[in-house]
Amino acid sequence: MLLQTSAHHLNASLSSSLSYSRPLPSKIPSLTLPRSINYQRLTVSSSTSQVHNYGTVDYERRPIVKWNAIYRKISLLADDPELNASSVLNQWEKEGKKLSKWEFCRVVKELRKFKRYGRALEVYDWMINRAERFRFSSSDAAIQLDLVGKVRGVSSAENYFLSLPDNLKDKRIYGALLNAYVRAKMQEKAESLLDKMRSKGHALHPLPFNVMMTLYMNLKEYEKVESIISEMMEKNIQLDIYSYNIWLSSRGSQGSAERMEQVFEQMKLDRTINPNWTTFSTMATMYIKMGMFEKAEACLKKVESRITGRDRIPYHYLLSLYGGVGNKDEIYRVWNVYKSSFPSIPNLGYHAIIAALIRVGDVEGAEKIFEEWLTVKPSYDPRIVNLFIVSYIEEGDFDKAQSFFDNMVEAGGKPNSSTWEALAEGHIEEKRISEALSCWKEAFMAEGSKSWRPKPVNVTTFYEFCEQEGDLRSKEIFLGLLRQSGHLKNKSYALLVGLSDEDSSDNDTSLEKDGINDNQDGDEKSNDGSDMVLNQLQSTL
Questions:
Q1: Which of 22, 131, 181, 531, CA to CA, is 20 to 30 A from 327?
Q2: So what's the pLDDT on residue 535?
Q3: Which long-range contacts does 362-370 make (Cβ < 8 Å, 24+ apart)?
Q4: Burial of 8 (C-beta count, 10 Å sphere; 0-12/13-18/19+)
Q5: Residue 505, helix vs strand vs coil
Q6: 524-534: per-residue pLDDT in tens?
Q7: DSSP state of 48
Q8: How far apart are CA 541 and CA 139, in angstroms?
């Protein structure tokens, strides 16, 4: 994502840098008013240009529905590589519906918000091919670099960076490339780029340091988080709310309540900082990991008191964290408050309440919530069904897990990779090697499998099961699936199945350093508390 100091700055720089309008009229028409005016009947209209806070001048005051309409058309395009946002934009303009630069930028912003990065890049490419209409600035380049990195990979982002003229490479461009390296966990390149930013004077604000701290948190190199904080203080770079929250998470992740509380006390002394709900949910998460449930619940009360506006996310964390505390009554209380505060609850909300109830052992209550979800669901989300499948398999009730799976498929739901992996796990427990292998095949072919990585324990268990049974054919097929999907390029995966370092083609050892995203569906049981802080920072970039 593009690195900006705040959401306000993002809006302003994105829109103003792309703004264009018709030339000002050479003469301003004069207006003669009658001597007497009936104010009760007078309707005043003006053709005076309206200056918006996005830096654009809009003479016709174009209605907001225009960008909304084109956004909907683009967002409805299926993830088919043969379909392109440019066809929608070309047709729109062919019909004589011209959009302003601000409106195009608003479409891009909305697409990025919902992680439709490919479509957002297509809109940018379309605009850049019309250079006579759209001015290109460093803000545009930073956004496009960010999108290129997300859609086409870090190597393409690097090539894009090298193609830019030096006079365009400001702190935003460098920041976007730094963020690409951090997302890919390219530690050496990220550190080298930050050094270059320091030498060029592009590291005089907290954002690049916050981004680097997210990398060290993901790699569990907590001492380097401390080093970054020390550098910021020595250079009088003001810590912002994200700096403090990451620092809290780092201290808590090391298992020291006292050291985490020291950071919080320092935070309270900083007059520029107002602890937010993330601050207290981070501390609650750490207290839960340390078994300090009373302190955790005190923090959760503070989370609830800091929920503002129409933000749903805090409720999801409250449900999850009360599940971690084991307080079923509070889970239901928060759920009722949540439902009374919003006209509808998204799938993520139902996922949060069901996961929390299963975690405290109230499977019957979770099943009732599930039945409610079936009547109001906006779409069939396999992640919710997966919660039950995993739970039943852990309890040894494979038949019920299979029944849930069958019902989902009959209702039109699409199993994801985690669904198939859970079923494979169940078949392994039942010593059914052929059925487990069939599920593995489906997992590697499922939609979205490129962003999924199998649990290391399941990889090891199935591989060893094949060896124990002497089923060399199944073992080779499984290795082929791992190799074809690219997982064996990771040294840690290669070691799981007995391959040497020479058999892998990169130096990624992230399984060893930071574990792995064991649950494609966001199971909070494995959350160390840092994910929330890191995700919030990323969402503001």
A1: 531
A2: 63
A3: 362/328, 363/388, 363/391, 365/328, 365/332
A4: exposed
A5: coil
A6: 444 545 566 65
A7: P
A8: 12
Residues 6+ apart with CB under 8 A from 14: 105, 108, 109, 139, 140, 143
What residues form DSSP beta bridges with 58? Answer: 50
Q: Which two tokens stand for residue 541?
A: 């970039």
Cβ–Cβ contacts within 10 Å for residue 459, how many? Answer: 21
Cα(439)–Cα(425) distance, integer angstroms: 9
Give the Cβ contact number of residue 447 at 10 Å: 11
- Judge whether 504 and 494 are in contact, CB under 8 Å: yes
Find the length of the chain.
541
Using alpha carbons, select from 145, 82, 91, 79 the residue that is nearest to residue 118: 79
Structure tokens at 525: 């049981």
Are the C-beta atoms of 509 and 491 separated by less than 8 Å?
yes
What does the alpha-carbon distance between residue 4 and residue 459 come to, in Å, rounded to a whole number? 40
Q: 204-216 b/e with 16+ CB inside 10 Å = b?
A: ebbbbbbbbbbbb
| pLDDT reported for residue 521 | 61
Cα distance between residue 9 and residue 207, in whole Å:
13
Q: Are 189 and 216 in contact (CB under 8 A)?
A: no
Neighbouring C-beta atoms of residue 338, cutoff 10 Å = 20
CA distance 381 to 377: 8
Q: Which residues of the chain have pLDDT under 50?
A: 1-64, 507, 509-510, 512-519, 523-526, 528
Which residues lie across from 57 on neighbouring strands?
A: 51
